[in-house]
Amino acid sequence: MKSKTRLITVNDARYVWLVDEVEWNLLKLKVWREGEKSAPWFTLDKDVNIPWRFSPEIAETTPDIAFSVAPKLVAEAIRQIGSQFGFPGENSKTLNLCVSADGKSILPLSAEASLSF
Fold it and tell me: Staple 86 to which of 4, 9, 61, 90, CB 3.0 to 4.6 Å?
């Protein structure tokens, strides 16, 4: 998957975002406030366990729907992270976050790591 930066406006603020495929089963969403690309406001890791990606025959005929990150999802992440962890300017460092294993909440990356033991 090739990364491409995109613009989105949420609550009258403009953001730049992109999705990186870190590993075959891990996506990373990065979001910056427009004009502040020196460090992301937040990164959000999402595990995607799609075993058919190892089979070229199946992968060719199966759409990568699970790997689609739509602007609607990015806008919702921006709203949720802003209300839960603070908006840009309220944090001095990049927020490194992840989606919980059940997909229902957003956690600091270190918290999810400690939950998996």
Answer: 90
**31-78 per-position pLDDT tens digit:** 999 988 788 999 999 887 666 555 566 656 655 544 567 899 899 999
Joined together, the tokens standing for residue 116 give: 């998996």
- Tell me which DSSP letter residue 103 carries: S
Residue 103 falls inside a structural domain: yes
For every residue of 37-92, which 3-state class applies, written as one string?
A: CCCCCEEEEEECCCHHHHCHHHHHHCCCHHHCCCHHHHHHHHHHHHHHHCCCCCCC
Query: Does residue 1 form part of some domain?
Result: no
- Residue 67, in any domain of the structure: yes
